[in-house]
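In response to reviewer comment 3 from the previous cycle, which asked for concrete evidence that the modeling workflow produces usable outputs, we include below a single protein chain processed end to end. The sequence was submitted unchanged, and the resulting structure tokens are shown without manual editing.
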Amino acid sequence: MKQLLILTILSFVTIANAQEKTTLTLKEAIKYALENKADAKKAQLKIENSEYQIQEVRSRALPQISANGSLTYNPIIQTTVIDGAAFNAPGTTIQAAFGQKWISTAGVSLTQALFDQSVFTGLKAAKTTREFYQINNQLTEEQVIERVANNYYQVYVLRQKLALAESNLNTTSKVRDIVKGQFDNGLAKKIDLDRMTVNLSNINTQKQQIINAVQLQENALKFYIGMPIDAEINIPQSEFEITPAAFSDTPNVASRSEYLILKKQEELLVLQKKSVIAGYYPTLSLSASYNYIGQGPQMPWFAKPSDGVYWSDFSAIGLNLRVPIFSGFGTRAKVRQADVELRTIQEDIKDTQLGLNLDYKNAKTQIENSIITLQNQKENMRLANEILKNINNNYLQGLASLTDLLDAENASTEAQNNYTAAILDYKLAEIKLIKSKGELRTLLNN
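The workflow returned the following structure tokens.
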């Protein structure tokens, strides 16, 4: 009963593990990454944070209201020397103390900016910052898509190599069994059997190396999509059909995220320069306050005039004008620094524009060459398989040597590996072409 219980538990664990295996198409992998990868999430958080930055700058244009209060005790009151003539005692000097031992004030103050060029410029910059982070989010998503697609196809190629290694292992095992049968019947030499055994061992080693590489690449893919490393994934074969690439004369560089984000940075630097220039402008603000003060020989709180404590209110309204005259050339230096940064980003924009055009030309050339290579490798694989089939038949009939058979097997394996590598080169080139056209998000529609 105990053994039966253990077997039942193990069966349930096996079924549960099997149910956790996730089938991932490229589209599903990309969607998963955009929803779970930290890079994509952080880009979204930056957009959210830009809204708060706008609110912060907008607050500078709104009234600033604050409450204040104080309680002061004067152990020693300062005295003032005055002329006694004011008190009908000409020719004398009177030393009088003004104030009370205790003073308490409470009030409300308000400040309102009426004209501040830096505030107006800051509002424009904040809105532009939000647009910058929106473009940055788009660029981040494209980078995530590119990384996921590249790793996704690399997993596929390694799995193809693993399937090829297993197929070769089965074929070589059958041939080895035939050679062993011939050796047992005195129709083959021991060296032939040993050579087949060594070849079988080499294929086994290659298979184990590929299994390890598949595991490592799958882990990398799961990392790039934000999936738990322990999760099991399955990639369907139908994802890897070779389709003709679409070419255009020259893509519109102005629609690329890399270009748009630099243009938005240029806008921000223009506004930054205007904000520094605003230091030359005067500022005008309105201030108002209302206060209540209590004074007396004892703590004013809850005291009455009968205790010698008196309360009174006072208020003030002011118009404040500040006109900058000379700042030691500090503002001028800041303006020139902002201008240098602006000219620097403009050079980056020109260079990026050239680089994006270069990316398209190179991607176009690379995929054209990949298609030719893929066609050649496919034909080579067909011929190598046909040769292997013929030599295998000839070997079984005693018309070909074991060396010929081993050479044909190696040639067939190499041709198939070259074909799968050509598929990877083509798919990676296809991603580069799609990226150079600014169409990486179309992979979500496939």
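The first helix runs from residue 2 to 19. We consider this sufficient to address the reviewer's concern, and the full set will be provided in the supplementary archive.
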